[in-house]
Amino acid sequence: MTAPSLARRLGLTDAVVIGLGSMIGAGIFAAFTPAAQAAGSGLLAGLAVAALVAFANATASAQLAAAYPRSGGTYLYGRTVLGPWWGFVAGWSFVVGKIASCAAMALIFAAYAAPPGWEKPVAVLAVVALAAVNYRGVTRTARLARVIVTVSLLTLAVVVASGVAGAVGAGEAGVAADGTVAPGAGSGLWGEATSALVNGGALVNGGAYGVLQSAGLLFFAFAGYARIATMGEEGRDPARTIPRAITIALGITVVVYAAIAVTTLSALGPEVLARSSAPLVDTVIAGGWHWAAPVVRVGAAAASLGALLALMTGIGRTSLAMAREGELPGWLSAVHPRFRVPHRAEVALAVVVAVIVLAIDVRGAIGFSSFGVLLYYFVANAAALRQPRGERRYPRALQVFGGLACAVLVATLPWQSVVAGGAVVLVGVAGRAVVLGVRRGRAPVE
């Protein structure tokens, strides 16, 4: 009996918007501060490295998605091209890392939107609400993502405008004794960026290692195109739509991230940015636009909500693919007869994320997520490298670079993230080995 398939409803614009909703928000509102802690103004170099690695990984994902236009992303690609164990490692890394990201995004949303003391209940409510949206169908997901992306981009435009306006009075004031931001706290638009480059990276805290660590922390923000690839079974003409959506969404995101990185670093300076819990709010204040702080808070909440929505969508589809292959409990493979979505996987995900939200601290979530995402894309590059000539769209050198870069960035992440991520991956591998052993023991003897 053939398993029911998902409905092919997504066009190119919908797929691009879902990818943008995944990327724009997660990194801008969560990753710049730890990246500045690792590299100071060298986070600009780290952003460039992360973008290059993301491009290499995007080409691998696009090439694979064109050849295998079904749900599952790198889990499917690794399993088909390299073997079941490779697929499991990719799928397990994706699901675990992105579940942590879901909890982090929910908490970041609540930090901007909830009254003091109500952060965790509001975060759980956001998870439940978005699970209900996903349950009703992927086209509703795409429509909501489009609204959220529009709000996010308008908010980021306000931030950049405040940085440009603040550049006129740059250097006239700084950080007060109590640590608050005053207008002119940075060295003017492009000031920190150009000085870091002209002075040979003198402002970089950790040298080359700090730059690479910042790249690893920033990389998870670019991983939204993974959500596009996991939805290959729901795209119209997926062999054409999915690769184009991946490259378009990534290109737009790189431009937006570069503009915001230069603006925040110039307005605040690396030291203030490294201490800020809300760097974009502090940026508009430093530019003298105090009235814009509430606007940015609303936009930050919307962007985090968009990232959470896309994350939950992608995890549900990967869980569906793994359940179809027996890597996760089979009941998760059910597709709703009316809405044509993996409804049981969506509900189970919402429950798990809600529980984690009640117990988790946002600290370290980015590093843990980056570990899982980089491992996931290492498998993607390895699978793309093995594709035959007839399926190739990009030079093999890109996949070699992408795989090596993923390994290097994993090694330079904070050691706590490496240890925790490695332990969880090993637990998954050991669990799968036990399950396979039990299944072999129950197999009838011929």
Strands, helices and their partners?
Elements: H1 12-23, H2 32-39, H3 43-67, H4 74-82, H5 84-113, H6 119-135, H7 138-166, H8 191-198, H9 207-219, H10 225-230, H11 238-275, H12 279-286, H13 293-324, H14 343-359, H15 365-385, H16 396-412, H17 415-442
Strand content: under 5%
Shape: globular
CATH class: Mainly Alpha
Query: What proportion of the residues is helical, as a percent range?
Result: over 70%
Whole-number mean pLDDT: 79
Query: What is the count of helical runs?
Result: 17
Question: How many distinct folded domains?
Answer: 1
CATH fold assignment: Amino acid/polyamine transporter I
Please state the second-level CATH architecture: Up-down Bundle
* Order of helix and strand elements from N to C terminus: HHHHHHHHHHHHHHHHH
Q: In whole angstroms, how far apart are the ends?
A: 25 Å
Low-confidence stretches: 171-204
Based on helices, strands and strand pairing, what is the structural class? mainly alpha
